[in-house]
Design a protein that fits this description.
Length: about 700
């Protein structure tokens, strides 16, 4: 049978029918006998100490089984690998909304009602919650400053310079499926049905925090209803479900509601990014400085790497990347789609656009003039770099030649129309992953079962692995079965950082090659044309055969700089009457190596582009500086784009063959889809109106 027929084709999702019929099992879909239900209650101060908890009224509610607080919670290991603390290990409160107790009851309604009846008294202390007042006292982050050359003389003496601050607000992940866990103890063995972007990571974090052996913990997570980084590192709710189940000696379901998501599972922090650029009159960059000031938790540091794009996107002989951080009484930030690159690219790509305007140069031409021949941050050669192709092909497809370089010149009725461009990049890596393939003869057909502890965020992992195995084994795709999302399966990388598809598909492909080799050896024959594993099973009348492959990146991969690249183009219409900006057209051109499935890949890009447009125009989590709580607590006030907010979306993939980072030449597209998008929109708004808005989101009040 001819191989390589399915990889790259836009086939439908193999798990699509399960999802549209409601048969796909998410965390709360597992029905266990004698299930009890837990509800978390939270602190109402940002800093201080709990002095008294009165749970008497809650305990009297019919159906309540337990009230768990720091007064009676078992001792856990706070350094076990969970994020954010809040494990009920003491009376100290470090942020508003910290978990301070769990109610367990016969029904969810009983538990949530009882949680509202618990009375808590505090000794409040001064809280660090107003970033605007605290930012002047920011201290160096753990990430060291990165300096090349001496940029200061260029900033002082350059013919064309720019020095501006760009601001991005706190954002939240808000996956369709909120965080939830079903915990089941069977003796010393614990099963956690839980949405986990890193299945084995969740297993070890839970085990370490609970002070039990990792082999006694099983994570089951075959389907995830979105995560965007929030389900990468696991949070306290995972272990608190297990604690609750142990206390009441019954299976327990603990599901966060939308309001609880705001201060339970991390966020993208607010970033102030000072960009300084210097160029000569020919448009060659002389110096670049990207200096980020942000915030972290009061006792733990996480800083988005906002300067990552600035390190590698353009050739600048002198550069400076720095991070300064303010510890605050807020939940610790965490990885959020395109971490650092999404926010950092807004600053970099806006600054590039601004300097191009000062130079009276087309912003695409300015970028092309500063294309680096090798990675400026480490002098490594590129495994491949197709940014120039992305820009040129995108400009042609978008109709960039129709853009008027002078802002405010293109109008239609009440609307000002502008074009903008913004570029993006994201690193490409393969992480160690293992896969088992089991071949069985059933009737007159050969079936394959593929097993690995991979995760599917809803992006199509089941489908691309079925395509990979079908091609690698010589089978129709409907004779391939995929088993993922279970820590009992061979260990695999997480679906994070755009490493999932790369790592999983290469592991499965290696297993296909290995099982075919082993079947050939078993026959003792020589073949002029390499047979498929399926053909060998048939010809040799083998009923069952299996193998395992342990895959990792090629030995020479570390010697190269490997990245995906993109160019994003936006056409924005701004109402002169209302100040409302609308993206009428958006085009993303991406070079990301081998595309495994054109249909799911297109969906990935459109999803990331949509979030980037939301980042530019609507999304913002607002903190009340008096109390430290989020004023935005639901989708009624945290605005994400809906269908009618999004205009015509187009996606182009540049053909790219790059087998240096991994044998299959896959680079990943989940993260890069959001990188550079907000800048493209902001640059288009400037082209439409002549107003340069450097603070996201760009709401009508900032344009009127």
């Amino acid at each position: 049978m001819e191989t390589n027929k399915l990889i790259g084709t836009p086939i439908d999702r193999v798990d699509g029918l399960l999802k549209v019929t409601g048969k796909a099992t998410y965390a709360t879909d597992y029905k266990v006998d004698h299930m009890a239900y837990a509800c978390i209650f939270k602190s109402t101060i940002a800093a201080g100490t709990i002095t008294r908890i009165d749970s008497a009224a809650a305990e009297k509610i019919p159906g309540v089984l337990a009230v768990i607080t720091h007064l009676n919670a078992p001792k856990l290991n706070p350094g076990g690998g969970l994020r954010g603390g809040a494990l009920l290990q003491g009376p100290e409160v470090k942020f508003f909304g910290q978990h301070i107790g769990v109610i367990v009851a016969e029904t969810f309604e009983q538990a949530s009602h009882a949680a509202r009846l618990v009375k808590v008294e505090y000794q409040a202390s001064d809280a660090r919650i107003d970033f605007d007042k605290l930012k002047a006292g920011a201290v160096p982050a753990k990430e060291p400053d990165l300096k090349r050359g001496d940029p200061e003389p260029a900033f002082s003496n350059g013919e064309f310079t720019l020095d501006e601050v760009y601001e991005t607000p706190v954002e939240h992940h808000h996956p369709m499926e909120p965080h939830a866990t079903v915990a089941v103890w069977e003796g010393e063995h614990l099963t956690l049905y839980n949405a986990s972007q890193i299945v084995n990571g969740a297993q070890h974090a839970a085990a370490n925090t609970l002070n039990i052996k990792a082999e006694n913990v099983r994570i089951v997570s075959p389907f995830i209803g979105g995560g965007f980084g929030s389900k990468g590192g696991q949070w306290a709710n995972l272990v608190l479900a297990a604690v609750a189940a142990r206390v009441v000696n019954r299976p327990v379901q603990l599901a966060l509601n939308r309001q609880q998501m705001f201060n339970s599972v991390g966020l993208r922090q607010r970033n102030l990014q000072r960009m300084r650029l210097a160029a000569n009159k020919d448009g060659k960059l002389l110096a670049l400085a990207h200096e980020t000031t942000t915030h972290c938790a009061i006792s733990d540091e996480f800083v988005e790497p906002c300067g990552d794009c600035s390190k590698i996107m353009y050739e600048a002989p002198n550069s400076l990347i720095t991070y300064r951080v303010v510890p605050m009484n807020m939940i610790i930030p965490t990885y959020t789609r395109g971490p650092g690159k999404a926010t950092g690219s807004f600053a970099l790509e806006s600054a590039i656009d601004e300097l191009a305007f000062k130079l009276n140069m087309d912003p695409i031409e300015f970028r092309l003039k500063n294309e680096p021949a090798k990675d400026p941050s480490n002098d490594k050669p590129w495994s491949s770099r197709k940014l120039v192709e992305c820009l040129k092909e995108g400009a042609k497809a978008f109709g960039w030649e129709k853009r008027n370089a002078q802002p405010g010149r293109q109008q239609q009725g009440d609307y000002l129309i502008g074009y903008g461009v913004g570029c993006g990049t994201y690193p490409a890596h393969q992480q160690a992953s293992s896969a088992i393939i089991k071949l069985t003869s059933e009737g007159n057909k050969i079936f394959a079962t593929v097993e690995l502890a991979a995760a599917d965020l809803g992006t199509g992992t089941h489908t691309i692995l079925a395509q990979t195995a079908a091609d690698g084994l010589g089978l129709p795709i409907d004779q391939v079965r995929i088993k993922i999302g279970d820590s009992d399966l061979p260990p695999a990388a997480g679906s994070v950082g755009s490493v999932g598809a790369t790592s999983y598909a290469n592991a499965v492909n290696d297993a296909c090659i290995k099982i075919t080799d082993e079947l050939i050896t078993r026959t003792g024959k020589q073949f002029s044309v390499r047979p498929t594993a399926a053909r060998l099973m048939e010809s040799e009348q083998i009923n069952a055969f299996q193998t395992r492959a342990d895959a990792k990146a090629p030995a020479g991969a570390a010697g190269y700089s490997s990245h995906s690249f993109s160019a994003n183009f936006a056409e924005v219409w701004v109402s002169r009457s209302t100040g409302m900006a609308t993206v009428k057209r958006f085009l993303s051109v991406t070079a990301a190596g081998k595309i495994l499935n054109l249909k799911t890949a297109r969906s990935q890009i459109i999803g990331g582009n949509t979030w980037g447009i939301g980042m530019a125009l609507t999304e913002e989590s607002v903190v009340d500086p008096r109390w430290g709580n989020f004023i935005t607590r639901s989708f009624a006030d945290y605005h994400v784009p809906a269908n009618l907010d999004i205009g015509h979306m187009e996606t182009i993939f540049i053909r790219e063959e790059d087998v240096i980072p991994n044998k299959m030449g896959i680079k990943g597209i989940g993260e890069i889809a959001i990188v550079g998008v907000a800048a493209a929109v902001a640059n288009a708004i400037f082209n439409a109106t002549g107003k340069r808005i450097r603070q996201l989101p760009i709401t009508p009040d900032k344009l009127l």
